[in-house]
From TrEMBL:
Residues 65-354 form the PRISE-like Rossmann-fold domain. It comes from Caballeronia humi. This is NAD-dependent epimerase/dehydratase. Pfam families: PRISE. Gene3D superfamilies: NAD(P)-binding Rossmann-like Domain. InterPro entries: NAD(P)-bd_dom_sf (IPR036291), PRISE-like_Rossmann-fold (IPR055222).
């Protein structure tokens, strides 16, 4: 029987790459979202307000799926609101499809803030020793990831399907208008530097500059999610998921600069956040875009300065252990520099950057 996937957030950086992966291996794919972004013609679009149980239930009435993949979240002003809204979204979807008795597995994508804490309480508690391991468990702070997990566990028990939780580090992949997209943000920043002659300044902390770290390619994450959803060994398990290599930003920054043919500024020891330095970026990009025949002149639709600042400004080392997945059979590996360069090539080919 053909596997039928419902991807919540199919237009995002995780959801779109997951859809491509599943379609390539013969799945039927439907995408549930607010309907603001067009999906591939191969994906059945389903529009609903994910924050409304009624809207979700009505949109999914009469439909059945074998697998549900939750790759969306809605950023709120406080973590308590994040908990209420994002936890509710998980329940609304799983309650709507759970009663069909066709769902065999549901997967939830969260991230390393499981160990670091949410933005509100970032690194304020006792951070586990690196590399982060799944058995280190939860931090004693409010975190909407924990609420999403609990809603998933409860629905799985009530409706009789298996589950998996996936915790990527910062994701590299193609998606536009996505808040959690360092790769596109750095590509836009480097392109601005090349066009204006400005130095390519690392915006983050000394700790991030000097420490080991890792990242997650969206394509590898998609393969990991598919593997866990179809592997008996991976049922009812939580997983870290990263590329498999490690690096230091003091090396990677010069690699990215070299790709764009620009000069990387020497690191001066203090963070210089992009959000405060990019005040004139919108105007500059609006002039660069027509001159270079780019598809998007609104830099706000491409770059998320705040999120890249948050990732690169961390005051602690962030590196991840993949032993659990390896022992259970997931052996994929991805070079992180190649992840960046492949993304940059696609952004050029699609006229997103010069």
């Amino acid at each position: 029987m053909q596997k039928r996937a419902l991807i919540v957030g199919a237009s995002g950086i995780v959801g779109s790459n997951l859809a491509n992966q599943l379609l390539s291996t013969g799945w039927a794919v439907s995408g549930l979202s607010r309907g603001r972004t067009a999906l591939s013609p191969a994906i059945e679009p389903i529009a609903a307000d994910l924050t409304s149980a009624t809207s979700v239930s009505e949109a999914l009435a009469g439909k059945s799926f074998t697998h549900v993949f939750f790759t969306a979240w809605s950023r709120q002003d406080t973590e308590k609101e994040n908990i209420r809204v994002n936890g509710g979204m998980v329940s609304h979807v799983l309650d709507a499809v759970g009663t069909t008795d066709t769902v065999s597995h549901a997967a939830l994508v969260t991230g390393l803030k499981h160990y670091l804490g949410p933005f509100e309480a970032y690194a304020t508690g006792a951070i586990p020793l690196t590399p982060f391991r799944e058995e280190q468990g939860r931090q004693p702070v409010d975190n909407f990831y924990y609420e999403q997990e609990d809603r998933l566990f409860d629905a799985a028990q009530r409706y009789g399907f298996s589950w998996s939780v996936h915790r990527p580090h910062t994701i590299i992949g193609y998606a536009l208008g996505n808040a959690m997209n360092m790769g596109v943000t750095l590509a836009v920043y480097a392109s601005l530097c090349k066009q204006t002659g400005e130095l390519f300044v690392f915006p983050g902390s000394a700790t991030q500059w000097n420490s080991l770290t890792d990242m997650t390619d969206a394509r590898l994450l998609a393969r990991h999610i598919e593997w866990a959803s179809t592997s008996v060994n991976a049922r009812n398990e939580d997983f870290n998921v990263v590329n498999g290599d490690v690096f230091r930003w003091k090396w990677m920054w010069s690699q990215i600069a070299g790709y764009f043919g620009i000069e990387a500024a020497p690191f001066e020891g203090e963070a210089r956040p992009l959000e405060t330095r990019m005040e004139n970026a919108a105007k500059a990009w609006s002039e660069i875009a027509p001159r270079c025949n780019l598809r998007e002149s609104n830099i706000g639709a491409l770059a998320s300065w705040w999120h890249t600042d948050a990732d690169l400004g961390r005051p602690m080392e962030v590196v991840t252990d993949m032993t659990k997945s390896r022992k259970m059979g997931f052996l994929d590996y991805q070079s992180t520099p190649e992840s960046f360069f492949t993304l940059f090539e696609r952004l050029k080919a699609e006229r997103v950057i010069p």
